[in-house]
Amino acid sequence: MGKIAVMGAGSWGTAFATMCVDAGEDVTVWARRAEIAELIAGEHRNPDYLGDVVLADSLRATADAEEALRGAEVVVLAVPSHALRASLDAWSDVFPRDATAVSLIKGIEVETRMRASQVIRGVLGLPYSHVVVVSGPNLARECARRLPGGTVAAGPESQVTRRVQAMCHTPYFRVYTNPDVVGVEIGGAAKNAIALAAGMADGMGFGDNAKATLVTRGLAEMTRLGVALGGNPLTFSGLAGMGDLVATCISAQSRNRHVGEQLGRGRSLDDVIAEMKMVAEGVKSSKALLEIATENGIEMPIVEHVVRVVHEGADPVVMVGSLMGRVPKPEFHGLEGARP
């Protein structure tokens, strides 16, 4: 057991920190706001993000990044994708270069179209082996309430990945390993865009048939892109693919599904975002994902239509007609050559 620093005290960062404590680890969570750190450390709760959920008694918290990072064996990064680079730049001088970095981030950097692990390695100069990504159907409030669930820890070096597996594996939370960093990260980012579409379907009053079709065809889009970028197609049938996609598309706790639902009801994106305390990663990442897909000659019609609604102001009702009117194709179009 070594010291773990969780950098980010939002809903998922706080929940993940609590699970690490439950697994027997020595954990300090860094909060951007001092009042959040004081509530976590003093009252064992984070009401802004996790309501009345009671956190682990021994979970420490601080608003001082240097204090949190000092002596850390593992540094868990739980900040929004758009804030990752600036945060790493700010922490660079005190970031322990011999630590393993763990990304909980499910988004793409819009300007560079880089995955979180790529940004981490680029800014900090960490070796490929020491950056691990964690992704799966992990709705933060359920994890914080210690309800049963699971996730995937992905990294190229088995010993490093097993360390991350052990630090958050508890009697209520199962952690599986996977060497496919690309596939796990693409799954985590792409499912958010699909969840926006699923939410729009809910907002427009569509039924379960529509939801099941969106989830299944969304999985095909995720897989096509992931495989084109070097991912393993089997990853997308696992927790970081299908598992995360299902949870994000059907749960009322999903931020991305919520945003889509409000858009489907005719509300403006600005109004929806203004009333949210947490980030819906799919809003920004969807455009970057579509650009990556276009560069690689990959069709992602659901993501394409989400971008039209979110970034170009298109009417969701019109986009449904456009999607449904596409020329029909074989079910596994674009996946014929995908082999594990």
Biggest beta sheet summary:
8 strands, mixed
Which range does the strand content fall in? 5-15%
Count of individual beta strands: 10
Task: Say which CATH homologous superfamily of the largest domain is assigned.
Answer: NAD(P)-binding Rossmann-like Domain
Distinct helical segment count? 16
| Dominant shape | globular
CATH class category name of the largest domain = Alpha Beta
Order of helices and strands: EHEHHEHEHEEEHEHEHEHHHHHHHH
Structural class: alpha/beta
CATH second-level architecture of the largest domain: 3-Layer(aba) Sandwich
Written account of the structure:
With 340 residues, this protein is α/β, with parallel strands linked by helices. It folds into two domains: 177 residues, NAD(P)-binding Rossmann-like Domain (Rossmann fold, 3-Layer(aba) Sandwich); 143 residues, N-(1-d-carboxylethyl)-l-norvaline Dehydrogenase, domain 2 (Orthogonal Bundle). 51% of the residues lie in helices and 12% in strands. It contains 16 helices and ten strands. The strands form two sheets. The chain has an eight-stranded mixed β-sheet with strand order 3-2-1-4-5-8-9-10, with helices on both faces. Helix 5 links the parallel strand 4 and strand 5. Helix 9 runs parallel beside helix 11 and helix 14 packs across helix 15. The chain is globular and about 55 Å long. The two termini are 35 Å apart.
